UniProtKB/TrEMBL annotation, chain A:
One of its GO terms (biological process) is daunorubicin transport. Gene3D superfamilies: P-loop containing nucleotide triphosphate hydrolases (3.40.50.300). Pfam families: ABC_tran, DrrA1-3_C. Its main location: membrane. It comes from Amnibacterium kyonggiense. Belongs to the ABC transporter superfamily. Drug exporter-1 (DrugE1) (TC 3.A.1.105) family. The keyword Translocase applies. This is ABC-2 type transport system ATP-binding protein. Residues 10-240 form the ABC transporter domain. GO terms for cellular component: plasma membrane. It is found in: Cell membrane. One of its GO terms (molecular function) is ATP hydrolysis activity. It comes from the Bacteria. It is a peripheral membrane protein.
Automatic annotation (TrEMBL), chain B:
Belongs to the ABC-2 integral membrane protein family. It is a multi-pass membrane protein. This is Transport permease protein. The chain crosses the membrane at residues 41-62, 74-94, 114-139, 151-175, 187-204, 242-265. Pfam families: ABC2_membrane. One of its GO terms (cellular component) is ATP-binding cassette (ABC) transporter complex.
């Protein structure tokens, strides 16, 4: 056995997967340290699921190589399967069976005795607050319950590495927050987690490091702070009552926050990149002192679209951008 | 070396007992699914009842003079038809299963690749057993007294039918692997089975058929299986048809099991 405690949880070099003419994954490099949460961020069709599938031995790479906890995913696939838990984007549990039956079947397949498998099922259902629904067939489960069961099923063998493919896509905000708590608990028990997401805030909340993936390539990699620094944390948007005040307003903004604001095409809106939210108060006071009246202002967090724009020079898919946009507008 | 890695490595991955255990677990899963969706069993429960009663009263008088005299001809025919048609479901359900997300999990588990396939084939023998029991009991109740008179022979004949159906389910499992949708598995399979089961000696003596059909019905393997069941239950004899049926089943398994396993491994 060549596994050493210092081996990275995941080490992928130049992974390639081609479907027909489409290079779904086009040379992905990843290094994930044990005990961390690694986020793979990207829009639909960026190659996230394909990448996970190759790392989890579900797909054979067409090029490159990957090692999971020191084991090659192609040559030592059986060993790798013993070290990972996979929660797919679509519920990878049996719809017609109950929650308990699902967990017992998976437990038995993993080599537990009937008694052990049932005890494990009870334990996991309790941990994921599914005890009350244990006997119901999954058809009657809500989306959030199904995801939780899915995650529970990945933990039966207590795998040191867990793959979560878009664990919160399609969940309402409250259920999403519950799922985040569950994932955080998971990490505290020492597991390594690789998760994919379309949501910048999800990667921000959960991941120690983030890889931004676009068209099958990693276009940026770093901590969430690194990533945000490249786009600014948020932007202040101002609409002036008198467009004629624009030049004065721009001068005041430059003087206070030291950046050049961007004026919208119809020259009514000014967008100010915002590194330090505290300065907003000062800036607003400055504008009042200068006699500039505001019709409206708002703060906008960077969307996935803006991250993409900043990193790749082109936007993310329109639908994804709409989903992630979080605009908190305040009427002045 | 991490503790977890050593546990995984310590287990014999291809131990035959482990593969059998995993296949049994998959079969158990199949049976749980049946219990949750009993309508899956309609083809092996209601169908033999309805067909037996219907055909007995429609054809009985015309073919054998009265219903009771027709039963020794009809029941083995219905039995073989029902169980063989039931083996199609193996392919359909396997296809449906493989299209679902749960199959991704099976593929990511450190289990024998063959276990889900073996489990499905194993669970289906229970379906055949149900169909066989119901058909014999319905026939016996209607007046086919040989069924109850020589129970040992009845059980042996039932087992023969189950073995043959199980061997045929390898063919339909292969269809399931190659077809694009579950629906098309059903379509292709019935296209093959419908003429095969009706152009036989299942419902009428082949002597009444026009010459080309008669030749086909007599070489049709389904006819041989039906004859084997008839001679076992009606005359308590093992004839050449029994050995022919078993040989046929063995040939089918020998040819299709490797093909099916290979197609399955490529997909799974």
């Amino acid at each position: 056995m060549s596994t050493s405690t210092t081996a990275p949880a995941i080490e992928a070099v130049g992974l390639v997967k081609v479907f027909g003419d489409n290079r779904a994954v086009d040379g992905v490099d990843l290094v994930v340290q044990p005990g961390s949460v690694y986020g793979v961020l990207g829009p639909n069709g960026a190659g996230k699921t394909t990448t996970i599938s190759m790392l989890a031995t579900l797909l054979k790479p067409d090029g490159g190589s990957a090692r999971v906890l020191g084991h090659d995913v192609v040559k030592e696939a059986a060993t790798v399967r013993g070290l990972i838990g996979v929660t797919g984007q679509y519920a990878s549990v049996d719809e017609t069976l109950s929650a308990t039956e699902n967990l017992v079947v998976f437990g038995r397949l993993l080599g537990l005795s009937g008694k052990q498998a049932r005890a494990k099922a009870v334990d996991l259902l309790d941990r994921f607050s599914l005890t009350e629904a244990a006997k119901r067939p999954l058809k009657k489960f809500s989306g959030g319950m199904r995801r939780r069961l899915d995650l529970a099923a990945s933990l039966i063998a207590q795998p040191p590495l867990i793959f979560l493919d878009e664990p919160t896509t399609g969940l309402d905000p409250r259920t999403r927050a519950q799922m985040w708590d569950t994932i955080r608990e998971l990490v505290q028990t020492g597991s390594t987690v690789l998760l994919t997401t379309q949501y910048l805030d999800e990667a921000d909340q959960l991941a120690d490091r983030i890889a931004v993936i676009d068209r099958g390539r990693v276009v940026a990699e770093g901590t969430s702070d690194d990533l945000k620094a490249s786009v600014g944390t948020a932007s202040l948007q101002l609409r002036l009552v008198e467009p004629a005040d624009l030049a004065v307003a721009e001068a005041r903004i430059r003087a206070r926050v030291g950046v050049q604001p961007v004026a919208s095409a119809e020259r009514a809106w000014l967008t100010v990149p915002l590194q330090d939210p505290d300065r907003v108060t000062d800036l607003l006071v400055d504008l009042r002192d200068a006699g500039i009246r505001l019709a409206e202002f708002g703060v906008q967090k960077p969307t996935l679209d803006e991250v993409f724009l900043a990193i790749t020079g082109h936007g993310a898919d329109q639908d994804d951008a709409a989903e992630t946009a979080e605009k908190d507008e305040v009427m002045a | 070396m991490t503790a977890v890695a050593s546990i995984a490595a310590a287990q014999p991955r291809n131990g035959i007992t482990r593969i059998v255990g995993q296949s049994l677990t998959m079969a158990y899963r199949g049976l749980l699914k049946v219990r949750r969706t009993p309508e899956q069993l309609f083809d092996v429960t209601l169908q033999p009842i309805i067909f037996t009663v219907m055909f007995a009263y429609i054809f009985g008088g015309a073919i054998s003079g009265d219903v009771t005299k027709y039963l020794p001809t009809l029941i083995p025919g219905i039995l073989v038809q029902t169980v063989i048609t039931g083996s199609v479901v193996t392919g359909v359900q396997l296809r449906e299963d493989m299209d679902k997300g749960v199959f991704d999990r099976f593929r990511s588990l450190p289990i024998a690749r063959i276990a889900p396939l073996a489990g499905a084939l194993l669970a289906d023998t229970v379906r055949y057993a149900i169909a066989t029991t119901i058909t014999f009991v319905v026939g016996g109740t209607m007046g086919y007294h040989q069924v109850f008179d020589h129970l040992g022979w009845t059980v042996a004949a039932g087992l023969l039918v189950i073995v043959v159906a199980w061997s045929l389910s390898w063919i339909f499992a292969l269809f399931g692997m190659l077809a694009r949708t579950a629906g098309s598995v059903q379509g292709i399979s019935f296209l093959v089975l419908f003429p095969l089961t009706f152009l036989s000696n299942a419902f009428v003596p082949t002597g009444t058929l026009p010459e080309p059909l008669k030749v086909f019905a007599e070489i049709n393997p389904v006819s041989h299986l039906i004859t084997a069941v008839r001679t076992m239950v009606n005359e308590q004899q093992v004839t050449g048809d029994v050995w022919l049926s078993l040989l046929g089943a063995a040939v089918v398994v020998a040819v299709f099991a490797p093909l099916t396993v290979r197609a399955y491994m490529r997909k799974a």
